[in-house]
């Protein structure tokens, strides 16, 4: 039997995984992690009101979710003061990135991003046959001007910027990002991934302009709202672009329980403020631990901190490995020179106590040569 | 501003929705439905153990779900007595159908299905540029021989069969389906959608043969397991085909809470048996109500019954509309001659009491001319 006839694009694609999950590593280690501070999850969890909404939705889970995500879109529209027709709700930003790429990218389409930026975006671009064109980070930050310049050169229909950035935690102010939006070449679209925006200083996000056809903004309930495992996020953009998602999205794809939980989470803004305070404190603790160990760390507008291990990629990898072996799950950037760092998510006090205890032990065994 | 440059495929696609959700209809009516028996949801809901699993998972929802769906795949492997490497877990059959179509279909690819079969499959095929080639139903059942013949003529890499069928509820026995699998042309793949299989007689599903590269089987937790709103289903097939999903699937797409709930639901087989009994009784009640009103109904191996309204599409539509206006949500097949029927899902006793009360009133107002 010759097997199925895959499309030519699929036949050439490797089977890849943007990230190995911590559960996979736990199975390999034969032990659970003691601190799970590697995937930028929000260890403080969701609002109790969101949990209550989940419990209530559990009983009604026999019903499909509303394919229009109506109630949530109405609440988001009110929250952001934009019309509901400018919002698309989807299966996390990961899911929405997949749809966006599918709208704009086919075989050979040039797509511009930063070298070492979000791998899942790259995974989707490659998966639809696009050609990744990259710009290096400058001083551990994405480079808006260079991204625009390359997009212009390549006539790329899609440009990716995460602000704040993942994996470095750095950010640009609203003015810089607005200048980038204004400079997007005619016929191009800026995918502005603001997954971490709720952790950033107030002047980080440019104001929303839903009539601007050159940018789509993505937000999520995975990070500040503490529900990475729920799979729900949203995009805000020009209404004709938002309508285009209806051509291809899995209309019933956002689960009923996710819609209910997101709505309740959004309504509990005082809990969000508590989270912001806790994350800020945890970031400071991580930076202190780094300092105590003679390591630099990067300022961060996210719920994680990039700690510069002071050596090369191999050295950072050894530090990372040492932490993992001792039960501390962390990750690291994949591309040099950012890969001299490890990336540590804001943990609970217990998580960071363990980090504080473990990091010097690891550094002792992993000597800089 | 000229706006984003969509791919040529996307530019040509209409914005369509495979199904309008009942919530949309409720918003249009300005009132909730009194009986929700139109979307083949399982009104009896999930196992209490699944609900308990959801409540427990709610607290941990800050963690991403395991991208390998390991625990659930292990349990499914044991349940079906197949290796875990032959199973892919995804965001409901709808999500998995999207991935499967993406693997095999590009612009102009012929795909074979029955005229009037599952619209969401068609939505995906059209969405990836495929060309739908259809075979009519025969006696309200899909026609395996004709599907194979057309696939052979068209050299179609993908053939769709739902067994039991939706929207008619009819089914073929295991021998017929196995003969169809055996006749799948070299290089073609049969997508065997068994969403309703748990409601069917025991000799409906051919035995699983994971070495057969000509078929992939899809199952779901949306129907018999009562969790349509959770978005979790799975495929069983040849391991190289299963691995191909890893090239394109949203690895973190299946929510943590869905994985936990599905695992608990699978482990509660005695609850599943209760559901099977309740659904069987509800089917009989629906058929009795039809008979009392002088209407024929089709035998069903699903959790719904197609009731023949005895006229044409317009007449069935008027009956459907009358029920909807009186708060009874039902749906109907979209293509003649199946569209002479309305499709009624197995409801609770209260749901079916309301149907029993309402149907004669509707038939009185909607006279056959």
What's the arrangement of secondary structure elements?
Two copies of one chain form a homodimer.
Chain A: H1 8-12, H2 22-29, E1 35-36, H3 48-59, H4 70-80, E2 87-90, H5 92-104, E3 110-114, H6 119-127, E4 131-135, H7 144-154, E5 158-162, H8 174-183, E6 189-193, E7 215-220, E8 233-236, H9 239-245, H10 256-267, H11 269-292, E9 296-297, E10 304-308, H12 313-325, E11 328-329, E12 341-345, H13 349-365
Parallel strand pairs in A: 1-11, 3-4, 3-5, 5-6, 6-7
Antiparallel strand pairs in A: 2-8, 7-8, 9-10, 10-12
What structural category characterises the helix and strand content of chain A? alpha/beta
CATH homologous superfamily designation of the largest domain in chain A? Type I PLP-dependent aspartate aminotransferase-like (Major domain)
Mean pLDDT of chain A: 97
Question: What is the spatial order of strands in the main beta sheet of chain A?
Answer: 2-8-7-6-5-3-4
What coarse outline of chain A follows from CA principal-axis ratios? globular
The stretches of 5 or more residues of chain A where confidence is low (pLDDT under 50) are none
How many β-strand runs of chain A? 12
- Can you write the helix and strand succession of chain A as a string? HHEHHEHEHEHEHEEEHHHEEHEEH
Largest interface, C-beta closer than 8 angstroms, per-chain residues: A-B, 92 and 92 residues
**CATH class categorisation of the largest domain in chain A:** Alpha Beta
In this structure, how is the largest beta sheet of chain A organized? 7 strands, mixed
Question: Remind me, CATH topology of the largest domain in chain A?
Answer: Aspartate Aminotransferase, domain 2
How many structural domains are formed by the residues of chain A?
A: 2
In quaternary terms, these chains amount to: homodimer
Percentage of β-strand residues of chain A:
5-15%
Please give the radius of gyration of chain A in angstroms.
Answer: 21 Å
What is the rounded distance between the termini of chain A? 55 Å
Number of helices of chain A: 13
DSSP helix fraction of chain A: 40-55%
CATH architecture of the largest domain in chain A: 3-Layer(aba) Sandwich
């Amino acid at each position: 039997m010759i097997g199925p006839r895959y499309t030519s694009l699929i036949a050439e694609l490797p089977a890849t995984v943007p990230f190995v999950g911590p559960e996979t590593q736990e199975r390999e280690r034969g032990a659970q992690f003691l601190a799970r501070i590697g995937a930028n999850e929000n260890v403080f969890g969701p609002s109790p009101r969101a949990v209550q909404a989940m419990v209530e939705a559990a009983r009604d889970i026999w019903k499909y979710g509303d394919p229009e995500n109506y109630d949530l879109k109405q609440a988001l529209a009110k929250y952001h003061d934009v019309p509901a027709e400018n919002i698309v709700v989807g299966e996390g930003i990961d899911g929405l990135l997949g749809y966006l790429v599918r709208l704009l990218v086919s075989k050979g389409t040039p797509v511009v991003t930063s070298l070492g930026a979000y791998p899942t975006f790259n995974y989707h671009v490659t998966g639809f046959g696009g050609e990744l064109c990259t710009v290096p980070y400058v001083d551990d930050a994405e480079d808006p001007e260079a991204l625009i310049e390359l997009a212009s050169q390549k006539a790329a229909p899609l440009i990716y910027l995460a602000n704040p950035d993942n994996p470095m935690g750095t950010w640009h102010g609203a003015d810089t990002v607005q200048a980038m939006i204004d400079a997007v070449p005619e016929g191009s679209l800026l995918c502005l991934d603001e997954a971490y925006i709720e952790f950033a200083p107030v002047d980080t996000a440019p104001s929303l302009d839903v009539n601007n056809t050159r940018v789509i903004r993505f937000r999520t309930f995975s990070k500040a709202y503490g529900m990475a495992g729920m799979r729900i996020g949203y995009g805000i953009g020009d209404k004709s672009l938002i309508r285009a998602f209806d051509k291809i999205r899995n209309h019933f794809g956002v689960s009923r329980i996710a819609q209910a939980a997101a709505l309740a989470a959004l309504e509990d803004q005082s809990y969000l403020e508590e989270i912001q305070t806790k994350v800020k404190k945890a970031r400071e603790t991580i930076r202190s631990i780094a300092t105590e160990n003679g390591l630099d760390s990067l300022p961060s507008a996210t719920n994680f901190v990039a700690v510069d291990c002071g050596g090369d990629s191999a050295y950072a990898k050894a530090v990372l490995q040492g932490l993992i072996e001792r039960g501390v799950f962390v990750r690291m950037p994949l591309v040099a020179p950012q890969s001299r760092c490890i990336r540590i998510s804001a943990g609970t006090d217990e998580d960071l106590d363990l980090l504080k205890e473990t990091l010097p032990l690891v550094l002792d065994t992993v000597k800089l040569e």
